[in-house]
């Protein structure tokens, strides 16, 4: 496993999107109303985390999510921009732990922690 020296705690990432029907609870099947779905928020948070570290990994390496501990505290309607911010809190061998927060125009909508592991991408290819 090769990790470049620049991969250090404190590294930050960000991902954003405009909520549309495909990211609502009714579309995901996680609820019955047209608001930003918790699974969609978690996916955006994971994107902020994994895209922040990918440039610091060797070409054949990727990260995979293994744990999320997230609170979704406010609803967001379709048409509103949401963004997630990640901060790499610790590196323990192949294990990366992130602090995550998500926001919309009115403030924080979610927060929590996320664990990812560094693995070889060819491990997931079919034989």
Reconstruct the topology from this structure.
Blueprint: E1 12-18, H1 25-28, H2 38-53, E2 61-72, E3 81-92, E4 95-104, E5 107-120
Antiparallel strand pairs: 1-3, 2-5, 3-4, 4-5
How many structural domains are formed by the residues? Answer: 1
Helicity, in percent? Answer: 10-25%
**Radius of gyration over alpha carbons?**
15 Å
Strand order of the largest sheet: 1-3-4-5-2
The CATH architecture can be named as Roll
CATH topology description: Thiol Ester Dehydrase, Chain A
The termini sit apart by 21 Å
Number of strands: 5
Which secondary-structure class do the elements indicate?
alpha+beta
CATH superfamily: Hotdog Thioesterase
Total helices: the number is 2
Bin the strand percentage.
35-45%
Poorly predicted runs are none
**Biggest sheet character:** 5 strands, antiparallel
Average pLDDT score: 94
Task: Tell me about this structure.
The structure is a single chain. The chain is α+β, with helices and mostly antiparallel strands. It has one domain: Hotdog Thioesterase (Thiol Ester Dehydrase, Chain A), CATH 3.10.129.10. The chain contains 2 helices and 5 strands; from the N terminus they run βααββββ. Strands 1-3-4-5-2 form a 5-stranded antiparallel sheet. The chain starts with 11 loop residues before the first strand and ends in a 7-residue tail after the last strand. The mean pLDDT is 94.
């Amino acid at each position: 496993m090769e990790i470049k020296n620049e991969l250090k705690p404190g590294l930050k990432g960000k991902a954003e999107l405009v909520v549309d029907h495909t990211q609502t609870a009714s579309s995901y099947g996680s609820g019955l109303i047209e608001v930003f779905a918790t699974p969609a928020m978690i996916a955006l948070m994971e994107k902020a985390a994994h895209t922040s570290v990918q440039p610091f990994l060797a070409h054949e390496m990727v990260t995979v999510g293994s744990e999320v501990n997230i609170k979704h505290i406010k609803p967001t309607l379709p048409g509103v921009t949401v963004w997630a911010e990640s901060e790499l809190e610790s590196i323990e061998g192949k294990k990366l732990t992130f602090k995550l927060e998500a926001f919309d125009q009115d403030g924080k909508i979610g927060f929590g922690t996320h664990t990812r592991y560094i693995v070889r991408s060819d491990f997931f290819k079919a034989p």
